[in-house]
Amino acid sequence: MANETQTMTQTMTVSIWRENGDDGRFEKYEVPARENQTVLDVVAYVQQHIDPTLSYRFACRVGMCGSCAMMVNGSPRWTCRTHVSKVVADDQLEVAPLRNLPVIKDLATDMDPFFEKWVAAEAVFHPSKTRHDPMAAITPDDPMRIAASEAIECINCAVCYAACDVVESNPDYFGPAALNRSWSLVNDIRDDGQDVRLAAVGSNGGCHNCHSQQGCVQYCPNELNPTLSIAGLKRETTKALFRRSR
Amino acid sequence: MLDLRLYMLQRLTALIMAPLVIGHIAVMIYAVQGGLTVDEILARTQGSVAWFLFYGSFVVAVSIHGAIGLRVISFEWFGLNGRALQLFSWAVFALLFGLGAKAVYAVTFAGVGL
Lengths: 246, 114
What we know:
heterodimer; A: alpha+beta; Ubiquitin-like (UB roll); 5-stranded mixed β-sheet; two-stranded antiparallel ribbon; 11 helices; elongated; B: mainly alpha; 3 helical TM bundles of succinate and fumarate reductases; 4 helices
């Protein structure tokens, strides 16, 4: 308790985006400046101690579920694994809802457009076997297995989607996460939907819109490389075009 | 915005343009040796099927390549879409092709009589 009182004496200002069916604005809150706290801790403190009407989304608090991504001082971050000390600038902390997604309320965004694009990009597994067939044998050193392994471990947090300038200027663009998932499935020999997938990622909102600017690579909290995956899709769609015309 | 078809068209036209640009620059460096005159240029190009094909294919490639590039920029930066975007893209193509074709014709077969 003594420690708690001591740390409470030092405070910092956090600006949090408040929006509830209106235009929205930043509001300032005084919160304890603890030595060791995450951005999510700060948001939770405001909701629990200052204004219980603040809406935000989180679940696991350990960087597994992908629920708590927000814009922190202008950059998309997974807030549960982002320490305030690493991102605070001039003792200022600004927390806003993820870019490129509609706001439901305050810091909670509507993730529907994000996930609808996963389906549109055919980032969906098409089984080629039934449970009665033997398991597919895939060795760890298989090149396709290696390519797929590089693209998995996405937690669907939409940080890349918020970081992408093409998504911002082109609402039809599927975005890095969906295309990255499509690429992992292109490299899945158990999948039976490659033709529809390549047609989907070669369509209007597909991989060819990517400018290879690599905002997704810079901000992905799991250090994935969606730009590389998208380059793979560009290559495969081009190859498929020549296969078709032969 | 950019589907596979437009993406490939833009890449293929770039592939065509790259050697032609190098050829164009090489001829420029060669041609300006000892001064450059209209007569000298026309002597090389007039009535020449080879130069007509050289610059003609360049004009076609540039018109397609430039129209697709400006199409993306006008969509992403200025929000042009739908029919307006289609019209704009075709207008850019027509303008580039028209000006280029006029120039190519002028230095190859204009006044030569086919």
